[in-house]
């Protein structure tokens, strides 16, 4: 900024900007561009590189004190913030926020006292009040489609400056492959070093080398900016660093690499568009311990400055010999193989329910009572990575089968209970895993489940701790006023029939639902989304005795955990404080005055008396050394020789 040519440099910088006179905003690089066929509020977000460049340009204008020109840049940057206040990636967010903060420090001042009224034509209305103490807070309100139809009205009064962000979500069908995966990836693996007999079952042994090859190109119109290839590795494998260093040295696209716990990350200068070529390289991974039944590993490819341009593809190693059995170490399970015809498909309670007729039971596995033309029903989780099932014929291969009973004739899922006592330093802690019947189950099935659960709780000793955890298929809602002993102040939604049954049990057994006792974000209170209404609910609960609620520090959902289910992971942190047990200090054995052994009369009497105790105590005291005797044998020496007291100096306590 102290250069004599700073004015010329600034003129050149401004010549590359894009100005929008309608919004009085200015940016560098690709700005917002409306896309045909999309709602007016849907705009293609700019790249992270554009946001970062514009942020640096704003900092330059601030240093030059060109505040009028800088205001146009600040207008554009403010409109690019996402709903959470960030931008595209971490780096551009830091630069943009720094530039906006410095601009705000120079231009915005005074008190903040704003009243913001948000309303719609059909009666929805909410009021925000922003004051000085709210400057670091973000206030939110959820507006559903029932509250607003086409327009949202915002009216502000008072003084100060604030930012209003509106997040709108909608779904659309897309057959464009590029929107699903903007990269073309080909991944292959080949074993290059192994001591295994080719006739043995395929598995990976310690020291086996796996050669992994990838070829990547971008399906867009122009080359990307810096690219990332995050290569996940199979369980038990570590990357060969020598081969990775060879990739960086010999491949002109790859700049460097990093190794994490379960993956190796390659950084590229850019991804070329498909018509101009591709990035292709290979590296080696070494097996650190014996592995069998290897699952797929994921490769994530994305543009560092535009993370929305990403694609994830799974790859696997060489096939394994699983025609007759599925083996894991020394344990093998017979498989089932059926030729079947799918007859009906329906959605129910978050599951895809598939009805099929068995045309040919090719291999029955562990289920022997299977015949042609039998009907079977399969429940597939929404999170299942399964092919798109249609009304057609399939060859079904499975590792085992599970007998399924329709308790009420309509396919409702029955409940299940399992108990696991833990022996802790505090005492016995009983963990009861529960899966409650769904709403579709009959009242008899529900009554039976809750009756069995109540009976199980009643059989446990009152002194032992209890934690119920699982999918209760019940919504207890925010019903603290109605159920103050069972529900805390932070429940979610409204109660349903299953929730009523559960709360009655908790009330009778003096239990409380820990999920409702801790203040978290709404997304951390819920664990399952209804497939049709897309409403989130709190179904997975952790319940304990009301007297033990103080041992629970928090209970919340973790949506980032990959649990291969459509339910979020729920974790409760519990501190088991053991009771203090005070032990009385045992009294020591009396000490015998061995100095009396110098008296020949007393020594003679002692030796004569010891003969009455048998051979164990036949001894003669011939000197003044200490004598070691069993506890039961101390009374006779004390009576004949007398006891001895330690001499303690005046003013000191014995130790």
UniProtKB/TrEMBL annotation:
Pfam families the UniProt entry points to: A2M_recep (PF07677), NTR (PF01759), TED_complement (PF07678)
UniProt feature coiled coil, ranges: none
Superkingdom of origin: Eukaryota
GO CC annotations on file: extracellular space
SMART domains linked: A2M_recep (SM01361)
Region called Disordered, residue ranges: 629-655
Every Alpha-macroglobulin receptor-binding domain range: 224-315
Name of protein: Complement component 3-2
Organism (species): Stichopus japonicus (Sea cucumber)
